[in-house]
Design a protein that fits this description.
- This protein is mostly helical.
- Helix 1 runs antiparallel to helix 2.
Length: 82
C-alpha cells in the first residue's frame, strides 16, 4: 500500500506541474514581448491551456482519492492486526 501512496503523491506532483505550466501559458497572454508590443492572443492557445487546467485538476483529485483510499486501507489493516 506504500506503493499506492507513492504513486498517488507522484501523480499529484505531476498534476501540480501541469497546472503551473498551463497557468504560465495563460499569464503570458498579453504579456509584453520585446519592448512595448503585446503578444497577439492568436499566438497563445488559451483553449488548450484551459483544457490542461481542467485535466490537471481532475488528475490531482483522482490521485488524492487514491491516497485517501490507500490510507483508509492501511488503517483497516492495522486495526485488524491490533
Amino acid at each position: 500500500m506504500i506503493d499506492a501512496l507513492q504513486t498517488a503523491f507522484t501523480g499529484m506532483a505531476r498534476a501540480t506541474d501541469r497546472l503551473g505550466a498551463a497557468a504560465q501559458t495563460i499569464a503570458s497572454a498579453g504579456a509584453p514581448v520585446s519592448g512595448t508590443s503585446l503578444e497577439p492572443a492568436a499566438q497563445v492557445d488559451l483553449s488548450g491551456a484551459a483544457v490542461e487546467l481542467l485535466g490537471a485538476k481532475s488528475a490531482f483529485a483522482l490521485n488524492a482519492a487514491v491516497a485517501r483510499t490507500a490510507d483508509r486501507m492501511t488503517g483497516q489493516l492495522l486495526d485488524i492486526n491490533a
